[in-house]
Amino acid sequence: MRTIIKNATIVNEGRTFKGSVVIENNLIEKVIEGTAENLKVEDAEIINAEGKYLFPGVIDDQVHFREPGLTHKGDIYSESKAAVAGGITSFMEMPNTVPNATTIDILEEKYKIASEKSFGNYSFYMGATNDNIDELRKIDNSNVCGIKTFMGSSTGNMLVDKLESLQQIFALNSLIAVHCEDENTIKENLRKQKEIYGENIPVSMHPVIRNAEACMKSSSFAVELAKQNNTRLHILHLSTADEMDLLTNTIPLAEKKITSEVCVHHLWFSDEDYNEKGVLIKWNPAIKSANDRAALWEALDNGKLDIVATDHAPHTIEEKNKTYLNAPSGGPLVQHSLIAMLEFFHQGKISPENIVNKMCHAPAVCFKVSKRGFIRPGYYADLVLVDLNSPWKVNKSNILSKCKWSPFEGTIFQSQITHTFVNGYPVYRNGIFDETQKGMRLQFERE
């Protein structure tokens, strides 16, 4: 199978240029700069990309696709389908499914499900607990993205709150990805709010309960542990101005031992949006102040923040529409993350080159993903074609996540994804999916 994407505006490795890409089976065979009016390859499908932008496929390092055990909210089929429609060609999924993915056997069962159902490429984190260190030691770092450690409240048995356990986890030769919120601080803040409001706490108190102090206390502890143990630490969904002081932009990304992620919702919303959006924007960590959001943008621009991801975490609308104390945290984002970032480009806040850097290149570098994240000969042809000037409105009829709602419902985006190629195959093309092709298990160039 050979495909030519012809006369696209290619955004790759800090450059934007006119060019064409030749795909041979799964891989990029050639990248040709300049116009290619006379480019002909025998037995090739030619896709005319004149006027469209070609990006590497997005690599989302943090999603919750809910399978197994929570498939009324979403599953690997439905959420990976939404992801490829959003330009995400590879994802790394979290372990707080049912059962929790805290053993090698359970983890491998998730890989088996994905091999049969996933539209995109996939990897799954192993979950850490206070007592599964022997299982964590079995991980093959070349085919598992990392170990997820909840250093804050979580579901089931996945809150790691024993210092001895944390020391053992941080001493492992694996990438340790952490959710950082201090449980005791949150409990005390919640107690105070219950004294004021009883059971009727307004959602606007969410960033007061799960406040910047809770985040900073936990994140700074994680960084301290990582420095003590020379840990390869990745801090997920940072949300506060204070935490930016824990990060550096003086070391090349490939050499950083401590890397970081910011999520689209923390860049888009602020606490001023709770009045309109309510529990639909209840996430953990909480969306905080406009000042915090501004600090995240500054850190994204200056290189302290490394990756933009989603923390995609669907719930049914019936679950989300409960009172603050009973509504779960999280929401669907994979279908709209790239176009939301492109909306910021239209607003003059970020360049296409930096969007590609933070959503495609940086995840590949941070996780040492093999042959993905760049438009290079010999790399897998994970590619996204985007029309930057094709406005459309998000509504229930075009939401693909199983939960059928979005915090972006009613938003008009200026950009539209027209094609998504996964391993060389046009899995998504102008609203039509090719369900015959499945994604591949991600491989990592590390021991």
Structural features, described:
- By secondary structure, the protein is of the alpha/beta class.
- It folds into 2 domains: 87 residues, Roll (Urease, subunit C, domain 1); 310 residues, Metal-dependent hydrolases (TIM Barrel, Alpha-Beta Barrel), CATH 3.20.20.
- The protein is 28% helix and 23% strand.
- It contains 13 helices and 20 strands.
- The strands form 4 sheets. Strands 1, 2, 3, 4, 5, 15, 18, 19 and 20 form a 9-stranded mixed beta sheet that branches.
- Strand 7, helix 2 and strand 8 form a beta-alpha-beta unit.
- The radius of gyration is 21 Å and the shape is globular.
- The model has no long low-confidence stretch (mean pLDDT 96).
In terms of topology, how is this protein built?
Layout: E1 2-12, E2 15-24, E3 27-33, E4 44-48, E5 53-56, E6 58-63, H1 76-85, E7 88-93, H2 104-117, E8 121-124, E9 126-127, H3 133-136, E10 147-151, H4 163-170, E11 175-180, H5 183-197, H6 206-209, H7 212-229, E12 232-235, E13 258-263, H8 264-268, H9 274-277, H10 290-302, E14 307-309, H11 317-320, H12 337-346, H13 352-367, E15 383-387, E16 392-393, E17 412-413, E18 416-422, E19 425-429, E20 432-433
Parallel strand pairs: 1-4, 1-5, 6-7, 7-8, 9-10, 10-11, 11-12, 12-13, 13-14
Antiparallel strand pairs: 1-2, 2-3, 5-15, 15-18, 16-17, 18-19, 19-20
